[in-house]
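User: Could you check the structure of this?
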Amino acid sequence: MAKPGTGPDPGGVAAVTVLKRAVELDAESRLRYRRKITLRQGVSARRELCPSTKDDTKKCNLRKKISDYMDRAENIKKYLDQEKEDGKYHKQIKIEENATGFSYESLFQEYLNETVREVWIEDPYIRHTHQLYNFLRFCEMLIKRPCKVQTIHLLTSLDEGFGKAQQISGLEEIKASLRNHGVLLELEYSSSIHDREIRFNNGWMIKIGRGLDYFKKPQGRFSLGYCDFDLRPCHETTVDIFHNRHTKKI
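Assistant: Sure, the predicted structure tokens are below.
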């Protein structure tokens, strides 16, 4: 039996979760981090090189240090850009069972900017009520973000049961609502669709094992996570992120 006061430490559990996610970052993430640190070091060295510095030798050393930091940061940036250009970029995020902090905003915000005008979504399971709400929430994110989305393409499968009418009605309602915001939703149905992926016209492609439906059912209507999906526990799944300048349309 555990002794009083020896139970799991919430702070320790949170720290372990953060560390696990940090370890899962791939080489690209580490390169980005190195570039940030390198730039900070360059800025720090530049601050040291203030007008009051009288020692010429120190000035010379600081100038060289600044130049080296900036060159290293630029080389890392060029390497990452080339990886994207060659279509070799790949980042993987593993979402563990019951993990939180993976709302659509948290997951996609890094890849959405003012250049995003067209989005392609391929997901066979935009059928049931909660899945329709997931898709609606995803569309809301696209409207709120700095990107200026004009067209959203959705390829999904039709519900073969009694939910077919509700599915079609729900998607048409979302389409009408998006139209009021100046966004065109193009709907297409396929009986053979299986893969799940999301593409942006700026070259980013995100593949989620469970598609948009990776959130667990909330414990109740008044429980944390019902509204804020960063607090909603997730099903275990894997997110693969690629970049290719020549994004193919579905």
